[in-house]
Every structure is written in C-alpha cells, then in structure tokens.
Design goal:
It contains 7 helices and 6 strands. It is globular, with a radius of gyration of 19 Å. By secondary structure, the chain is α/β, with parallel strands linked by helices. β5 and β6 form a beta hairpin. It has a single domain, classed as Isopropylmalate Dehydrogenase, CATH 3.40.718. The longest helix is centred in the middle third of the chain and has 26 residues. The two termini are 35 Å apart. The strands form 2 sheets. A 4-stranded parallel β-sheet has the order 1-4-2-3. A two-stranded antiparallel sheet has the order 5-6.
Length: 201
C-alpha cells in the first residue's frame, strides 16, 4: 500500500514563523502515527532545494530547528517529491500548502479531462480505455479526497474537522470516523504534552 502524504499547513495559518512550523511537524507526526498506524513517519520541510542553504529566512531557520526535534526528519524537500512516496508529512506555511493543494486538485481535474477526451476520439482509444478501466478506477480510488473526508484542525483545545465544501455523504462519514479515531487515541492530550516538551526550541 502506498503511504499517504499529508501537507501541514494547508491553509489555516498563512503567516508562520519557524517555531510554528516545528509545532506543525510535532502535531502532524502524532496524528500520522495514529491515523495510519505508521511509526516514524518521514517528515520533510517544503523548500526550493534540498541543501540547507536554500530557501527564505523562514525555511532556513525552520530547517535548523527541525533537526533538533525527535522526529524522523529527512530535511528539505522539493515539491516534486510530494507524490512519489518518499515523504509522509510535508511541512510548510499555510499559504504555500494551500497553493500546492489547489495546484494538485487542478492538475488532477486537468488530466482526468484529457484522458476522457482522448478515450472518445476513436474506436481504438475506446477499446483501450475499456481495457484500462480497472487501472483508472484504482488511480481514482487512491486520489479520492472522500477516502479521508476531512482532516483535523490540529493544535486547538478540542476536536475540529475540516472538510471540503463539496464533500459528499461518504466523505462526511469518513471524516467522522477519523475524528472518532483521534478522540479514541486522545490525540489532543498527546499533542499538548509534546508541544510543552519540544515546542519552544
């Protein structure tokens, strides 16, 4: 099974400081472990290059601070690595994260439209499309936002889930299931303890 990648922050905090990004990583790591049952998720800082000297003041300082955290921190990552399975948690400010998220949504719709258009062009393409239908369905399933429904708003004192405005019944059901899992594992308490210990580097 491919491991899902989560972007934190995806839009809740458009302005950030290094300490906030480190806290996002701490909170995200706890959430990821309990949500997907994967110990030591790989945490990467979204940047314009992998070298420590790359990026703006925010990412350079954050990168140095993240190395001190008790995380499986793999360093700076470029956006091309988000979808190749080499990173589990992508840490960035909310402005950048939301831009990446919407770009990914747009590209998905773009390619879906191209495939549908090309499959209808000829009998040969239609037959090929029919043969590839199971593969297309598998791709759709692994990129379907309804599979998770929503994500928790981490770092607040209580369970809050954020979902897409166009969520269907399946998405809402899965979001509620995710929220119940967070409550069962007492994610907020674990986050509070970890932030108190590591959040003020």
């Amino acid at each position: 099974m491919n491991r899902p990648a989560i972007i934190i922050d995806a839009g809740a905090n458009v302005d950030s400081i290094p300490a906030y990004l480190c806290q996002f990583a701490i909170m995200g790591e706890i959430h990821y472990r309990h949500m997907f049952g994967i110990d030591q998720p790989r945490v990467g800082l979204l940047n314009i290059g992998e070298e420590d000297s790359k990026g703006c003041d925010l990412t350079i300082k954050t990168n140095m601070m993240m190395k001190k955290l008790p995380l499986n921190y793999i360093g700076n990552i470029e956006s091309r690595y988000i979808f190749n399975g080499s990173v589990d948690l992508i840490i960035c400010d909310g402005f950048t994260g939301n831009t990446v998220l919407k770009q990914a949504e747009g590209m998905g719709k773009f390619f879906n439209g191209i495939i549908k258009k090309e499959v209808k062009k000829s009998l040969r393409a239609k037959v090929g499309g029919l043969l590839l239908k199971p593969a297309f369905q598998a791709i759709k399933a692994c990129t379907d936002a309804s599979e998770y429904g929503g994500m928790p708003l981490l770092g607040i004192n209580g369970p809050v889930l954020i979902g897409h405005g166009s969520s269907d019944a399946r998405a809402v059901r899965n979001a509620v299931r995710s929220g119940l899992q967070n409550l069962k594992c007492d994610i907020n308490k674990q986050i509070q303890t970890a932030i108190e210990k590591w959040g003020n580097l």
